[in-house]
Amino acid sequence: MTASVITKLELENWRGIKRGVIDGFRQINVLVGRNNSGKSSILDAILLFGPNAEKLLLRRRPKQGWIDFIFVGQDGARVKAHTTLGIAERVVKADGASLVLEVDNFPESHRKLTATLDKIVLIDDRQLSEPSLDEWYAQLLAREQRLDKEWIRLVNETYGLCVEYLTRMKFPDSESPERLVAVLGEPENRAVAVEWLGDGVRLGMTILAAGLATKGGIMLLEEPENHQHPSALFALAKSLVKLSKEHSNQIFTTTHSREWMRALLKAATELEFAEALKFFHLQLSPDGNLWVRSLDAPDAQVLEDIGYDLRFDYEFASPPQKAE
Predict the structure, then answer these.
(1) Is the entire prediction scored with pTM above 0.90?
(2) What architecture is the 1-119+216-324 domain classified under in CATH?
C-alpha cells in the first residue's frame, strides 16, 4: 500500500466539534454517521489546508464568515493534521485564518508536504453549477498521455454512454456560447452539450477527471452517491479505487449509502487494495466531543456478511456524555 498522507486529525472548537481526534487514516477513508455527526466538518478541516481554502470554505458555508467555523462561544478554532511528511496546523479566528507548517526542519519534507496540500481537491454537489468539467478537460487534454481519452473510456464504461470525443465549440448553433460538447457515436450519432447531461453523469465525470488529473494529492468527496443509479456505483467505485492506487491519491469520502460502502469494499478487494480502505463511524456527544469507531476492510466485510449495517453503529455504541 502506498503510504497515506494524512494519518491523524486533531480538532478543537472547529464548527460543531468541541474536541476531536481521528487517528489511523489510510489511503481510502470512508466517513459514515448520522446527520450532524461531523462528517462534513472533517472534509472542511482538511480543505482548510488546501489552495483557495478561504474561497471554497466561505462558499460552502456562506453566512457570517469565519465566525461560523468556530464552536459557539469560543474565540477561535485549531485544526492539526499529522502527515507522513510532518505536521500542518491551522488556527482560525473570526477575522481570518493563519497557517503554520511544522516539518521537523527538513526542507525536502516541507516542499513535499506543501506540494501535496496544494493538490487538495473537493467534489460536492456545488461543483455541478461550476465550470469545473471544462477546467478538468483542459488539464487532461494538456497532458502528454492525452488523459482525455482515458477519461472518455471511463465515463462510457461507468454510464453506458457512447462518447467518441469531446470538443469545445459554439453549440447548438453559431449564435450560442462556446461550451464543452460530447460527440456520441452509435447508436445515437449526435452531439450534446455536457452541461445538458444528467446530474449523476456530470458528477461522475468530475470525480473521474479529478482522479485522473490528480497525482499524489488528496480528494475530498462529499456523498458521491448523490444522483447516482445503483448500477453505476460499483463501476465508479472501482475506477476511483484503481486511480487512487495508481496515482497515490488519498481519498476521504462521506456517505449515507450502504451501496456506496459495499461498492468501495468490493472494488478494493477485487483490486487487491483492501488494506488501503478504512471505515470511520462518527458520533458527537451532547457537549461536542467527537467519538470515532474505525473498521479495517476485513472487519467491515465480516460485519457486512452477517448483515450488520455500519451506518447504525450508534445503536450499539454510544459516545461519552461529558468531555473528558
Answers:
(1) yes
(2) 3-Layer(aba) Sandwich (3.40)
